[in-house]
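Standup notes
- DV: blocked on the single-chain target, sequence here:
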Amino acid sequence: LIRKHPSVGANIIKPLGFMEREYFIIRHHHERMDGKGYPDGLVSDDLDILTKILIVVDSYDAMTSKRNYRRNMSMEEAVEELGNCAGTQFDSRCVEAFREALIGFDAIGDAFSQEYLDNFAIEQEKEKK
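- DV (later): unblocked, structure below
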């Protein structure tokens, strides 16, 4: 059942007729660069860049999400695993770009979080007065 979800998802949008690229991306987001993925066993040269990006992002999400059958990985553990599998399971360039994006995102997230907390504290003080 799990191995069928890429095909099922792609077939849901297929009748729309105008989402051909999206159909391909959805159908192949569990392929691997070495051809050992599913549903079609495609290799790197058969996949477009958006599919390769989604493969990395979806895998990161799966690794960092808590599942009933395993604990979630930390961001650092997941990024290390992506790096370990770059070139076989994942496109190396996409892994590196994702890693760089996470570094920037983490810095933005930290700044936003601190700004939010500071503003929240100010608002709380105003309400007390």
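- Follow-up: Residues 35 and 43 are 4 Å apart (CA to CA).
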